Amino acid sequence: xxxxxxxxxxxxxxxxxxxxxxxxxxxxxxxxxxxxxxxxxxxxxxxxxxxxxxxxxxxxxxxxxxxxxxxxxxxxxxxxxxxxxxxxxxxxxxxxxxxxxxxxxxxxxxxxxxxxxxxxxxxxxxxxxxxxxxxxxxxxxxxxxxxxxxxxxxxxxxxxxxxxxxxxxxxxxxxxxxxxxxxxxxxxxxxxxxxxxxxxxxxxxxxxxxxxxxxxxxxxxxxxxxxxxxxxxxxxxxxxxxxxxxxxxxxxxxxxxxxxxxxxxxxxxxxxxxxxxxxxxxxxxxxxxxxxxxxxxxxxxxxxxxxxxxxxxxxxxxxxxxxxxxxxxxxxxxxxxxxxxxxxxxxxxxxxxxxxxxxxxxxxxxxxxxxxxxxxxxxxxxxxxxxxxxxxxxxxxxxxxxxxxxxxxxxxxxxxxxxxxxxxxxxxxxxxxxxxxxxxxxxxxxxxxxxxxxxxxxxxxxxxxxxxxxxxxxxxxxxxxxxxxxxxxxxxxxxxxxxxxxxxxxxxxxxxxxxxxxxxxxxxxxxxxxxxxxxxxxxxxxxxxxxxxxxxxx
Length: 554
Description:
- By secondary structure, this protein is an all-alpha fold.
- It folds into 3 domains: about 1-105, Methane Monooxygenase Hydroxylase, Chain G, domain 1 (Up-down Bundle), CATH 1.20.58; about 110-225, no CATH class; about 235-495, no CATH class.
- It has 25 helices and 3 strands.
- It has helices at about 1-25, 25-30, 55-75, 80-105, 105-110, 110-125, 130-155, 160-185, 195-215, 230-235, 245-270, 275-280, 290-310, 365-375, 375-385, 390-395, 400-405, 410-425, 435-460, 465-470, 475-490, 495-515, 515-525, 530-545, 550-554; strands spanning about 320-325, 335-340, 350-355.
- A 3-stranded mixed sheet has the order 1-3-2, covered by helices on one side.
- Helix 15 (about 375-385) crosses helix 18 (about 410-425), helix 19 packs across helix 22 and helix 20 (about 465-470) packs across helix 21 (about 475-490).
């Protein structure tokens, strides 16, 4: 009976991942679309564009619902690890259904289509291939598919909230520039004439799409139905905490960080406000004009740190490539971001993107961005690489368990990266008072985002109050209001940083005395990106009287 349950669970999981890889190969191969798993078999379809027609989406929804119903009917496995897989699959299925049926980004967010189009071309060009002929052939198919995708977008899009509308017009221009860069790079390549022409056709499609957007015009954010944050938390993230409790957690974090910031300010210079101290801080190492050298050195130092504290096996990660943020992602990615490989093929690269801009530029935006990247380089590097996203992803991609190897959770993913920053302080890696002030400023920013996310959902704070919170942590008034508008359109994500870190700290407090520092963190990461109540259940089983044998093997 136990073997039959295991086989059925495996069959349902295989059918689920196969469906998604075939239906949405670009989104499943990218880490840009958090509602979908990273299905490694999507690498088989690098010549195929995602199908977002209403009929295709309806078919996908129906199939996911059927598999979800099958999974719910299955008897609970006796093995706790298999039951965790079953629950993880159910939460992931719920997330996809919420996105396709309730959020319905495909009806109101043109950025979805532009991301799929550009990321799809990027994948075809740069994912591992057997030869140049294959690379050109699959890229040509993706470029042809770009035209069909944008035509479908023109038919699907209804109300476009103003923040998405503005960002999509900017991204359309960036995408056109990206295709120009491809055409320029292909100029010297043999047998690339056809691909060069395909790039030109794709540029024309982008131009037509931008004109369609202008005809549709922007709508108010209220024209889009909000998904319930509490429903998203419970069904997709697997978090049982009520929203009021999360709001209280954020308030407590905000107050605690404000008190710590005041103490740090008094130590550094009691005559100045902390914002002045932050702006005056210039790291002793590295030059603002050489951000890539500064970050490259820090990543190497952080990797060595992780090896020294046994958080990383020397064979378990791929090299992180520092690169300028691709032109098509500049308007939708932060100034520092991570892009994970799909699988473990050593030819596939992990990227840490930095939007450094023109080093000679004197525009206020470029100057402020470079200054922030310079001041916060240690914490940004830790968040995105070691011990943050890159370390977590390197371990996840190599898990033997096919369910946990392919499913990411925003709550665990962002919570871990935020927690990873705190390891630098806790371990003494960062000791200088001004650097600790920089860390505290970042924590205030995270707490503000959690307060805004939960406060707006609970109608406990107004849009103006939310913007004021962001202004208080260093954003200009216009930028703060723009961020609040974007947060409102993507409810439930901004709270993942603070809440995820809070849950990890709770787990650490409970299990660290029983497991020790290295084993606790290793078991946490090697268990997959699980809902935190399942992490606790797993650790309890591993250290319980019936789990001594399992723990000995870990």
